[in-house]
Amino acid sequence: MAVTAEQRERWARIILRYGAGDLIGEIAHDEGVDRKTVYNVARRAGLPRRHRFDGARTARIVSGYRADVPVGEIAGREGVCRTYVRAVARRAGLPPRSEWQRKYPIDHAAFERPSQVGWWLIGLLAADGSVARKGNQISLTQRAADADVLHKFLSHVGCPEKPLIELKMSPNPEALPRSRAFAAVVNSASMKSALAEHGIVPGKTRDLRLGERAAAEPAVWLGLLDGDGWVSRKGQRGRPLLDFCGTRAVMEQCSAFCGERLSFQRLEAPTVGAHRAGLCRVKLHGANAARAARILLASSPISLDRKRRTLEAIVSGESERSPGSAASDANM
């Protein structure tokens, strides 16, 4: 039975949360699976087995928490992580510690009034981000070679010093990730709410549709291209190529965005074509690819380094062939 993109995304979330120490029951509930599935996904990813339930240990954790013993001290004494200690206390009905402070600060308003970089990150989150159904966890995942964008994400949300989480690789060729990969993870209710206004919601893989404001921002499409697109200086017939990928709704929005800003000989906008796994794509070739590259580059001062270099090469090559193109595109 073929594995769908939605299943792969669910497995990646399970692996991330299992590695972070979230309770098995909570992961299973949030992802709509049973506990055995969570264990199996973690096992295939090479993650260590969790401690079996120990009633005596749970009682000691609750007792220590009630006695105001520091969470780190309880965790070290019982051989568990801090997240597990807090989860046990929460299930026992104990209130969160009032003196608790984030180890790394966060700007909860980072996406309430997005800057150019904020819009770019919204597009990137639409492609490669994940929002937890329960709780306020927001994560962005990239392979090791493209981890530069994860540091840019953390800097934008106010915690540049926060370390990345390396994802465990699985020997199963069908499992994700297939190569060394990292995730940037933050928790913020305000940020989750702000992203939802722009279409970045839990379970977005199959039904994502960008908010009206987001769909009109060039930087959002730059972020989407960085995450779920392909850029080539010499694509078909040696011409520049920009290839966007996403849900049908998002690709229809992409087509409309391009149709308003570019010119096509026989159509008002580029065609939305079929892609693998039920997704769709929009392709831009030649002069339109170069014009779009110029618009996207101008929309944000930063983006994925690797693809930004290719976009710059496309613009540079088009300018050499047509010296007047830059002036005409500036008026678009």
Helix/strand layout:
Layout lengths: L4 H16 L3 H8 L3 H10 L10 H12 L4 H8 L3 H10 L24 H13 E3 L5 E7 L4 H9 L8 E2 L14 E7 L1 H9 L14 H4 L2 H11 E4 L8 E6 L1 H14 L10 E3 L5 E6 H14 L5 H17 L3 H6 L2
Antiparallel strand pairs: 1-2, 2-4, 3-4, 5-6, 6-8, 7-8
Explain the overall architecture.
This protein starts with a helix and ends with a helix. Strands 1-2-4-3 form a four-stranded antiparallel beta sheet, with helices on both faces. It has a four-stranded antiparallel beta sheet with strand order 5-6-8-7. It folds into three domains: 5-91, no CATH class; 116-207, Homing endonucleases (Endonuclease I-creI), CATH 3.10.28; 219-330, Endonuclease I-creI (Roll), CATH 3.10.28.10. It is built from 15 helices and eight strands. The chain has helices at 5-20, 24-31, 35-44, 55-66, 71-78, 82-91, 116-128, 148-156, 189-197, 212-215, 218-228, 248-261, 286-299, 305-321, 325-330, and strands at residues 129-131, 137-143, 165-166, 181-187, 229-232, 241-246, 272-274, 280-285. Helix 5 (71-78) packs across helix 6. It is an alpha+beta fold and 332 residues long.
